[in-house]
Write a structure and sequence with these properties.
Layout (H helix, E strand, L loop, with lengths): L2 H15 L8 H14 L5 H10 L3 H12 L10 H17 L5 E6 L6 H12 L8 E8 L2 H9 L1 E3 H5 L4 H7 E4 L2 E4 L1 H4 L2 E5 L12 E5 L9 H14 E8 L14 E2 L6 E3 L37
Helix pairs in contact: 1-4, 2-4
């Protein structure tokens, strides 16, 4: 790709989504934009670029942004955040929200839905223990195409083999040919909406828990700081923020601090843990994959 063309796409992506594309990642432009050029009837990316310079069609730009911002995901990705959700976050919230029994969760950059559905399945498994509670899971992504896939909640054999315990597969999915369809009781626990993290978050409302994992790595430091400060405004004072393993707030913002002994988990300064000492042991009803099934489905809490 010509230097001038690379600069065009780099600036377009940064302005519209905050995504930073460095020259060493230029191969991603070729691999992800070739299908877009074909979809729009252009014989090559070069011809699409010429058209973009002459007439910047907003629908074409939208397709380009969505192609470049669709990221990797899987059920119970990285395991540890979901352990903390059960062992740290839920005990705090069941104590702190005991009077209103409502928990609001935001999954930012939710992609094809595996993360919010993983949380929904955990909560569904604890239904008897959390009787009377109301859970609101809001899942957003900049890509409307990927959200349409998430809403369908139909996954391939390969996708359900990546991190999903076989007990959950058998209980919460129905096999349809060579695919697996998530049952409606889990699907209905998640509300999807298109959202750009650069936009005003006020319209989303406030949350008790925010999952914003493995997305900040694509932004520069300035943009990371702005996004984290906006999230802080939408998060309750005793709420929790979960970031990816390669992400941090240190040196970027003072609106969050790491929670001790909980890597990847952040709270606001002045956070007071409402999970009282001497309370019942953390709820750990999430099943692990049964012995002998690891070749089919990996265990939820399998150690790396």
């Amino acid at each position: 790709m010509k230097v001038a063309d690379f600069e065009l796409y780099k600036n377009l992506l940064y302005d519209k989504s905050g995504l930073v594309v460095t020259p060493d990642k230029s191969y991603l432009l070729d691999s992800r934009l070739t299908p877009i050029a074909k979809k729009w009837g252009f014989p090559s990316i070069d011809m699409m670029t010429l058209q973009l310079r002459a007439i910047p069609d907003q629908k074409l730009i939208k397709d380009i942004i969505e192609a470049m911002t669709t990221n990797e995901t899987s059920f119970f990705r990285d395991n540890k955040p979901f352990q903390m959700f059960q062992d740290v976050i839920l005990p705090h919230m069941t104590a702190a929200r005991a009077s209103k029994k409502t928990l609001k969760i935001w999954c930012a950059a939710a992609s094809s839905g595996q993360e919010p559905y993983s949380l929904a399945m955990i909560l569904k498994e604890k239904e008897a223990q959390l009787k009377g509670w109301r859970f609101e899971i809001t899942a957003t992504d900049i890509s409307e195409d990927i959200l349409a896939i998430a809403k369908k909640a139909t996954y391939s054999q390969f996708e359900v083999q990546r991190g999903l315990p076989i007990q959950y597969l058998m209980k919460h999915f129905t096999q349809v040919g060579e695919t697996w369809q998530l049952k409606d009781d889990i699907r209905n626990m998640v509300k999807y909406a298109p959202f750009n993290l650069l936009d005003d978050m006020g319209r989303l409302g406030t949350f008790d828990i925010v999952f914003c994992r493995n997305v900040l790595i694509y932004f520069d430091e300035k943009t990371k700081g702005k996004i984290l400060e906006k999230i802080a405004k939408q998060l309750e004072n005793d709420g929790f923020l979960l970031l990816g393993g390669a992400e941090t707030v240190l040196g970027i913002t003072d609106k969050f601090i790491p929670k001790p002994d909980s890597r990847g988990l952040y709270v606001k300064p002045g956070f007071v843990d409402k999970a009282v000492a001497g309370a019942k042991a953390p709820m750990t009803t999430t099943p692990q994959a049964s012995h002998g099934s690891s070749s089919l489905i990996s265990g939820l809490f399998k150690r790396p």
